[in-house]
Specification:
The longest helix is centred in the N-terminal third of the chain and has 32 residues. By secondary structure, this protein is mostly helical. Helices cover 68% and strands 0% of the residues. α3 runs parallel beside α9 and α5 packs antiparallel against α7. It is built from 11 helices and no strands.
Length: 316
């Protein structure tokens, strides 16, 4: 039964994701600038960029199909829906029973398919190259992500993210060996899926090395704004998945809706810490060559599988 508190929690989840995703991107950029000993951009620079792009005219390629025009809205919708089923501040989410962890991976894959098809639609060389690279990364990263989610579901006996979080909150504070392996694998997958160093460089425009930027080269105006916003939402979603699986303490439960007041600042602290760690990882890593990416993601897959085997052998 859907309650008022559940509707409120769900609405807050969606609004928080839409509002805080660009802020998380701005925080990561600030941390990277500080670590590089240079002047940091404004924390709200991503909002200014989105405002500027939404007020610019859209320039379309001559042979762009309706798919190219619809892809930004589909990708943005998929990322928003993905954020809405991840328990970030509460486990009382009406949309959660409609999609479990497997469906979440499917939503992320659907967004990848449409952004890759749109990149190939106009027939440019860089768009097609970026689409092939994106599908290769997805082909290797999605099984690793599924293994990470299965490791957590084996401990809690549930594939529902709210069920996993609700079970982990009530367990004693301890290190599960299986989740330790899964955590390392998840970190590697997150770097690859969000086009971060060492797999990709989000600040580069060198066509021969970029992946994500090659996919959106032909977009402009509000279409480019939606793509950039969706990329921030994807980073926010992966950050919240990591928080839900490995640091769930502080998330409000369905039986305690007043805990939402405490959950918001706790989530902000977790995201701030995670953004700083991401910036530190990028600063201490060098971008690897493209043919090394499959080895990197296969290592993540093997670590996630080892985590599952550790659970079967040790029961932890």
């Amino acid at each position: 039964m859907i309650t008022f508190s559940g509707l409120l929690s769900q609405l807050l989840e969606i609004l928080l994701a839409l509002a805080a995703a660009p802020l998380l991107t701005g925080w990561v950029n600030q941390c990277k600038a500080w670590l590089q000993n240079r002047r940091a951009p404004n924390l709200f620079q991503p909002y200014r960029m989105l405002h500027k792009l939404f007020h610019k005219d859209v320039v379309l390629a001559t042979h762009a199909s309706p798919l190219f025009r619809a892809a930004p809205y589909i990708v943005f919708g998929c990322m928003t829906l993905a954020c809405s089923i991840i328990p970030t501040i509460s486990t009382d989410l009406p949309l959660s029973p409609a999609a479990d962890a497997i469906a979440l991976v499917g939503l992320l894959a659907l967004a990848r398919v449409f952004i890759s098809l749109a990149a190939m639609d106009v027939g440019t060389a860089f768009g097609s190259m970026g689409a092939r690279r994106e599908m290769m990364v997805g082909f290797l990263a999605e099984p690793a992500l599924l293994m990470v989610l299965f490791s957590a579901s084996l401990i809690t006996q549930s594939t529902s993210l709210t069920g996993i979080v609700g079970d982990l909150i009530h367990r004693e504070l301890m290190i599960y060996p299986s989740l330790a392996f899964a955590g390392v694998a998840f970190t590697m997958v997150s770097l690859a899926e969000n086009a971060r160093v060492p797999v990709d460089n989000p600040s580069t425009h060198l066509e021969l090395t970029m992946i994500h930027e090659a996919l959106i080269l032909e977009y402009s105006g509000r279409h480019l704004a939606l793509m950039e916003w969706a990329a921030s939402l994807k980073l926010f979603a992966y950050s919240c998945i990591g928080i839900a699986l490995f640091f769930p303490w502080g998330i409000a439960e369905a039986s305690n809706p007043l805990a939402l007041i405490i959950a918001l600042p706790i989530l902000a602290l977790k995201l701030a810490f995670g953004g700083a760690v991401l910036a530190a990882i990028e600063m201490t890593s060098a971008k690897m060559r493209l043919f090394r990416v499959p080895e990197f993601l296969m290592s993540a897959f093997l670590l996630a599988v080892i985590g599952m085997l550790v659970h079967f052998l040790l029961g932890a």
